[in-house]
Structures are given as structure tokens and as C-alpha cells.
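Good morning,

Attaching, inline, the C-alpha cells for the sequence recovery test we're adding to the shared suite. The designed sequence is right after.
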């Protein structure tokens, strides 16, 4: 755990005005929240979490904000990805290593093509809460809302929301973050010597560093993110941040938080909560978003016109992106705010296969990205990044790709706790396709 430097503009004491705004934000209607059966127990857990150490340091979050400002200005590219839903059982070194590894390989392909630095943000170390389309499943049981709320087994006991799970989620996120730091320090990519140009590799070694040993890697810079969904959890680990244009709160739980398609009500708690945060914020925009709403989001979430403060994540579906995205981009651009335009080509392209699996076709994912790049090229705006559900493991959850995964292949290794992810091979293939789009 990094220690906060003495005299930093961060601390536990939140000024009364900000505390009042926080209470008002949380009093607004909040979609997609569990109903804890015992409010007293939930309150006790929130009280315990109030004393928890932050998992991320505000200085790291501030550095990410600077990186994202470059993305907004067209000088860098944002790659965000990982599991749809992390699970407690899946919070293992091999899994985290595999997911960071595939992100690094994707980043390598993108950086090589675009000639721009790639900012890497993992869906990791806290992506435990899930929004759902319904409240009960086919059996009439409460839906699974992620390991931070309940358990996926088909029994009433497993599906009953349990606030104690928020403590488990915090512990899992903290240990995952420790591992992310360790793996980043070691370096996640290919050994430098294997990257070919030894001269280039030498110059990447620390100044005055030792000669390159076989297996040496450059340290990696990866930030962590999750959906800002479960407000009882998110509200519990906040730091006062006096470093910006107005006093705000810095989440100690992730560098980057995004608001999902199902919780972006303009009068709701999630938007009001995000307004108070100093962290960079993402916002998913589905096909129902109007250009007027988009401008209202930008006004609310980027009041100081900070480049890269807000990432607008379009997830329109491959058949709709070319029609629905342009008026949004035009109106937001005319407003003068410098947002990051990011494409999530997964969530608008979900369907159920003939044999009953929630899946996505690789070709649809690529087509939505192609549409996204076409729109930005035509409008002269920067296609700033992608947000994808991927894993470094050899799963069979999405159709297509070079290996030609077919519906009959899906049952073999369909392991996701929620939405279907691209496997390692499909992920790298996707990055190579995007690399082609970046080259233009
Ligand atoms: C997600 O990112 O897993 C998700 C639920 O996305 P969306 O809010 O865009 O549907
Ligand atoms: Mn998902």
C-alpha cells in the first residue's frame, strides 16, 4: 500500500459542504441497488469500510488524469478491458496475470500501428458488481448481481443479498491491486531481449541500470477501473481532494470509474455521486441517448472543462453506430468540452445463440469499431479508445474470429460469470484489426 505523502492535498476529513452534497447525491433515486435484508448489518459493514485503507493512491489517479488529458487532445490512445464480472474464486494470480498479459499484447499491437502511446486501464481489482436487465431470473429467484452482492447458485439462500460480501470484495480488490503492482513492477510484456531491437531495449533500461539479462522486462503502467454501481460500497472509501478546481472526493477503490447504461439517469444518484469525484469518469451511452442528453451529461460531469475528465463510451450496436453516434459527437464537440471518445463494441452486440448462450459475434464487434472509426474520421474528431470484455484465457464465449468458434463450440469453455468475453486469440486479433483502423 503506497503511503500518502505528508502535506498532500488529500485526507479523510471531508468539509461539511461536500459531506452535505454527498448525502444529497445518495438520497436521489438509485437504480440497480440490492435490497439488503437486514439494513442494520449493511450499515455496520459500511461503517467498517469507512475505516479501510484506500486501494489506490490519489497521486496515481492524478497521473492517470494527466494521461487521459493527452488522450482527449488526440496524443494518446486508451485501451480499457478485462472481465465483464470478476469473481472472488477467479481472483487468482494466473487469472490476473493472463488478463494483464492480453491487455499488454493488445496495447503493443495498437501502439505499433497508431504511433501513439497507449494508456492501459484494466477492468480489475474491484469489478464485482453487475447491473441486470431484470430483477428475477427464469426460476423466479432474485438475479445474480455480482459476487459483491450475492452468489450465482440457483437457491434462494445464494441469491439473498449479503452485505458481508462488500468486505470480501474490498479484501479481494486490495489483494488483486497488490498483485497488479507486483506484476507491473516486474513488467508484463515480452522480455526486452525478445523484442528484437536490442539497442532500443537498452535505451528502455533504467538510466545507469544493469546490463540486460535474458528475461528482463520494462515495468508496465496499468490503472484499474470498475463500474460505479453499488453505492453502499463506493461511498465508503472516499478521500477529500483539495488539489483540483473545487474540493472533491477521490475514490480510494479505483483509479477510473464508469457509469453504466442502466444507471445514467440524469436525476439519479449515480450521476450526482460522480459529479463529486475527482477521479476520471466514464459514461456508457447506448442507442437511446439523444445529443441533448449527451451535452447535459458533459455539462454536469465536466463543469471545469478539463480535457479527459470525462470519457464517453458509445455502445450503440454495429448496425446503429454509424447513424446514432455522429449527431452526439457533433453536438458535444460544438459545446467545446474535450471529452475522450471511446467505443465499447461489446454491449450493443449481445445476442442469445441457438443453443441458449449469451454471446457476441467477433465480426459484429469489429464492425462496430469500424463504424466508430469511420464516424470520427469523417467528423475530424479523435477516436480515442476502446473498452472491451476480454480474458487471457482460452474460453469459448464469443463466436467467430480466426479459429471460427461456432455455436456448437460455446459449451466447451463458457466460463464467464456474466457477459461473454473475447478469448486471448480473439483479443489479439481484434487489436490487430483496430491497428489497421488506426493506420487509416
Ligand atoms: C458492462 O460494462 O459490463 C456493462 C454492463 O455495460 P453497459 O452498462 O454498457 O451495458
Ligand atoms: Mn458486461
Amino acid at each position: 500500500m503506497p503511503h500518502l505523502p505528508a502535506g498532500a492535498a488529500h485526507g479523510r476529513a471531508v468539509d461539511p459542504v461536500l459531506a452535505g452534497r454527498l448525502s444529497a447525491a445518495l438520497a436521489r433515486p438509485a437504480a440497480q441497488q440490492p435490497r439488503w435484508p437486514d439494513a442494520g448489518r449493511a450499515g455496520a459493514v459500511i461503517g467498517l469500510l469507512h475505516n479501510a485503507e484506500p486501494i489506490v493512491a490519489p497521486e496515481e489517479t492524478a497521473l492517470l488524469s494527466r494521461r487521459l488529458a493527452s488522450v482527449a487532445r488526440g496524443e494518446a490512445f486508451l485501451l480499457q478491458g478485462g472481465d465483464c464480472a470478476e469473481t472472488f474464486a477467479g481472483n487468482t494470480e494466473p487469472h490476473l496475470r493472463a488478463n494483464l498479459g492480453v491487455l499488454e499484447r493488445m496495447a503493443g499491437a495498437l501502439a505499433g500501428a497508431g504511433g501513439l502511446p497507449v494508456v492501459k486501464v484494466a477492468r480489475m481489482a474491484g469489478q464485482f458488481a453487475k447491473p441486470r436487465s431484470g430483477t428475477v431470473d427464469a426460476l423466479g429467484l432474485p438475479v445474480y448481481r455480482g459476487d459483491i452482492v450475492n452468489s450465482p447458485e440457483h437457491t434462494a439462500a445464494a441469491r439473498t443479498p449479503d452485505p458481508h460480501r462488500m468486505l470480501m470484495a474490498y479484501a479481494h480488490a486490495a489483494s488483486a491491486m497488490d498483485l497488479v503492482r507486483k506484476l507491473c513492477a516486474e513488467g508484463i510484456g515480452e522480455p526486452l531481449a525478445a523484442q528484437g531491437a536490442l539497442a532500443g531495449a537498452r535505451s528502455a533500461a533504467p538510466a545507469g541500470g544493469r546490463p540486460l539479462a535474458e528475461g528482463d522486462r520494462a515495468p508496465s503502467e496499468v490503472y484499474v477501473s470498475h463500474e460505479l454501481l453499488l453505492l453502499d460500497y463506493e461511498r465508503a472509501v472516499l478521500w477529500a481532494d483539495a488539489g483540483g478546481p473545487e474540493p472533491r472526493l477521490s475514490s480510494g477503490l479505483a483509479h477510473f470509474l464508469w457509469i453504466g447504461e442502466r444507471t445514467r439517469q440524469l436525476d439519479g444518484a449515480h450521476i450526482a455521486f460522480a459529479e463529486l469525484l475527482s477521479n476520471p469518469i466514464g459514461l456508457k451511452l447506448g442507442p437511446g441517448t439523444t445529443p441533448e442528453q449527451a451535452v447535459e451529461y458533459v455539462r454536469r460531469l465536466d463543469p471545469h472543462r478539463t480535457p479527459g475528465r470525462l470519457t464517453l463510451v458509445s455502445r450503440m450496436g454495429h448496425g446503429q453506430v454509424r447513424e446514432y453516434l455522429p449527431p452526439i459527437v457533433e453536438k458535444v464537440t460544438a459545446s467545446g468540452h474535450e471529452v475522450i471518445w471511446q467505443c465499447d463494441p461489446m454491449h450493443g452486440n449481445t445476442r442469445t445463440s441457438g443453443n441458449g448462450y449469451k454471446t457476441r459475434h467477433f465480426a459484429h464487434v469489429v464492425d462496430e469499431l469500424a463504424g466508430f472509426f469511420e464516424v470520427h474520421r469523417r467528423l475530424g474528431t479523435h477516436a480515442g479508445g476502446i473498452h472491451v470484455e476480454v480474458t487471457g484465457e482460452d474460453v469459448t464465449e464469443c463466436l467467430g474470429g480466426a479459429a471460427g468458434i461456432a455455436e456448437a463450440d460455446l459449451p466447451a469453455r463458457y466460463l464467464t460469470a456474466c457477459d461473454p468475453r473475447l478469448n486471448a486469440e480473439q483479443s489479439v486479433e481484434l487489436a490487430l484489426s483496430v491497428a489497421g483502423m488506426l493506420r487509416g
